Amino acid sequence: MENKLEYKYLYSINSPEDLRKLSVNELKVLAQEIREFLIDTISQIGGHLGASLGSVELTLALHYVFSTPDDQLVWDVGHQGYIHKIVTGRRDVFQTIRQFHGISGFLKRSESPYDVFGAGHASTSISAALGIATARDFMNEKFKVVAVIGDGAMTGGMAYEAMNNAGLLKKNLIVVLNDNNMSIAPNVWSISNYFSSLTVTGAYNKFKTNVWDLTGKLDSVGDRIRKVAGRLESGIGMTTSMSRCR
Questions:
Q1: pTM of the full structure
Q2: What is the 3-state secondary structure (H, E, C) of 213-225?
Q3: What tens digit of pLDDT does each residue of 224-243 get?
Q4: pLDDT tens-place string over residues 144-162
Q5: Pairing state of beta strands 72-75 and 174-178?
Q6: In this structure, are residues 64 and 16 in contact, taking their beta carbons and an 8 Å threshold?
């Protein structure tokens, strides 16, 4: 393992409260230190490396902005939670992850008050977060609830059922989609394949060009139409990439 003296900030972070004392520029240095620490550790003991490398800044930002553990973070993918574990008091035992008598490779409620919901990889974060938010409101409490979803979890039907339910109940709930354009295998999702093939056809691109030219002649109305079209195209792009985040 690397000598702790090589790190400027990492070994001063024992909780998110310590994290919040840093400036944004210092957080950038910390993010790089965490990546080095993570690679050094996991290269020796094994584990899920890629998902966590793609969630360093996201994890730091969430703990920096929200008052965890009072505010509740629900992670859909346990092996995206390695950074979360490092900054919530488990850095010094991180080398035991996924080992006998070591810390869990996923989020585990009995392991830390920061692990709000124990889950592996099951598209459950929005459902769990919505349940927590509903209970919060029943108890007249004020904490925030954040669901972090991605890493292929949007391919599960439960995520869409939860979004529909959340839209109906209109709870104060934040959902973060971590779409990192990464995958452990080629996309096999039918919706992804359909939209991918659609966006490369000549007819689609010709139609898009014609609409763009036409709306350019419509002044402010055209600008609004272009913005809507841009959001629609971005939505198609997001749909095709959802299955890459695994």
A1: 0.73
A2: HHHCCCHHHHHHH
A3: 655 665 655 555 454 444 44
A4: 999 998 767 777 888 889 9
A5: unpaired
A6: yes
